[in-house]
Amino acid sequence: MHGLSITCEVVSGDEGGWVFVWSLVTRRPTAVFRAHEKAVIKVQWFNSGGRIITHGRDNKLYIFQLGQELTTKIPTKNDTGEQWLKPLMVHSQDVNALNFCAFSMYDDTLIAVPGTLSSETVDVYELGAGNQLRRPLKAIKPPEETSKTGIVMALVVTKDRLAVGYESGTIVIFEWDSSGSFHVIASHKPHSQAALSLALHKNLLVSSAADQYLVKYDISTGKLLDSLGTGHTGLQSAAIRSDGKILAVVGWDNMVRVFQLSNFKPLAVFKTTSQPGSTTISFSPINNPNNENNSQALQSKIEQIKKSKIMASHWLAVGGKDGRIGLFELY
Asked: Which numeric CATH code is attached to 1-94?
């Protein structure tokens, strides 16, 4: 699930392989198609919202170009998607999805995924001209002297850093370059159980895990900066707002916990849905609601008012296994 407030839309994927583009103005889908034969692990906008990248449990990574008119009907359990229109697929890549770890994308060009041949390693791809993917880094793994880490559970990639969270609770930060060389600049084991999520804002990296801890690092130096015991295990997914002020975490208990990023000061706690199984969390970017480019496509004054209000709000979206997306407005 990923939000894009420029067009007031959210894109989400479900366990049936379907992808939905939702309008925050009408609360209805504007596009529906089946991208994967199995569950969608992650879906994300990129290229300023003109494209969608999807990662499925069918071991496929797809890049779709939006633009054509697609079906807006909600599928039933019997729909296979074969007769439904799909957006133009500009790239398809075989990837590893055996360990439920989703891809990480940086600057619309770099994509990190679990290693194709081993779930304990990481591959990094670069999207170049002609929508071709090259693989500057292959089978990245910690040095042999590092204790057994288990499989890769969470990833964050930047232009020269790669942070990896492992099944053992170990967090390793690599420095790398486009020539294919890499080395470890830091290895920490702040978690007693599997790492579940990594979130990044500039140089600040936060990890959450199946244990109760939130841990903050400087990804440029690898230094561990702070740690917070929340008193609640199963911190499934973490997200940092684009202004770098707020961190939100959703747990197995369906509770969202909001913190000030700078010092982990608790700000809010609230429940998402009545059914267990909240799986992902995402902030909308902070935007200027008076941006003229964002209102050119509006067709009515009422729609313009609604859209301006949405863009002026600080939305937090939470997705659950019950098929619902909860929208919450934060300060």
From this structure: 2.40.10.480
Cα 286 to Cα 213: distance, rounded to the nearest angstrom: 27
Cα 190–165–319 angle (5° rounding)? 110
pLDDT at 78 (0 to 100)? 84
Q: Note the pLDDT of residue 134.
A: 85
Pick the CATH number of 96-329 from 3.40.30.10, 2.130.10.10, 3.40.50.2000, 3.30.70.100: 2.130.10.10
Q: Domain spans of the chain?
A: 1-94, 96-329
Asked whether 103 and 61 are in contact (CB, 8 A), the reply is yes
- pLDDT attached to residue 311: 67
| pLDDT for the residue numbered 240 | 96
Question: What is the model's pTM?
Answer: 0.89
Can you read off the two tokens belonging to residue 150? 């288990």
User: Cα(34)–Cα(44) distance, rounded to whole angstroms?
Assistant: 15
Same fold, 1-94 and 96-329: no
- Which parts of the chain sit beneath pLDDT 50? 289-298
**Regarding beta strands 29-34 and 18-23, do their DSSP bridges make them parallel or antiparallel, or are they unpaired?**
antiparallel
Selection from 264, 275, 274, 267 nearest residue 316 by Cα: 267
277 and 250 Cβ atoms separated by less than 8 Å: no
Contact 101, 115 (CB under 8 A): no
3-state secondary structure of 79: coil
Q: What is the pLDDT of residue 296?
A: 47
